[in-house]
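Late entry, written up from scratch paper. The run itself happened at the end of the previous shift, but nothing got recorded in the book at the time, so transcribing now.
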Amino acid sequence: MYKALKTIVRTLIPNKLFFKLEPTFRDIHYSLSYKGDNFKCTICEKPLKAFIPFGGYDKICPSCGSLSRDRRLWQIIERDYTNFNPTILDFSPSRALYRKLKAFRRFRKIEYITTDLSGNFLADRQYNITDINVEDEAFDVILCYHVLEHIIEDTTAMKELYRILKPNGTCLIQTPFKEGDIYEDYSIISPEDRLKHFGQDDHVRVYSVEGLSQRLQAAGFNVNPLSFEEADDNLHGFANQETVLVCRKGVS
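Output as recorded:
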């Protein structure tokens, strides 16, 4: 129901107008139907009666629209990367996280830059991840969430991420994961076949944690997989099991 309604709204309303009106619509929806004391979103910090089930596996915050992975990512950023004044680059950002970090700049000296080529995300730039028009060692933190599985030349993208990261900087990376080896087949090109093989019609592979870590290490990164498993109460609506790759650039 939620997914169908969202599709109708996004079809009828242009992106720029939708992005502008979305916070107001969500705030009304939250106040009328979801205000409560059972859960709490880490991003908007609103107390919730419930999260909105999505896709049979995820939970959306009715107030800010964050997915479970967005709420986890903000928890990591707030804990580890806001105690200094980082320069952050975010690829195809979550709208909830975009608004949070743009607002957060008022209190901390964070430079937060976003980029997207598709036009489907709130973005300041249009960088091609395989040829990023940025000088070397420009960013303290790079957020690359659910991006690499869309990129055929993924190893080139990883080298670019490494190039623009400052020494001792961190790139936080996540994709959908499977067990075993990476599954990719570049002869699969139709949206229907990609949906069948890779789980989404614009994905070109499915990584494993081990396989993606090995490719990132080959690009120069030191990779530390962070794994999370939630308690039964799951106050913040996280995924029950989740892995984030913390990729660091050592000093040469």
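The chain has a mean pLDDT of 90.
(Scratch paper discarded after transcription.)
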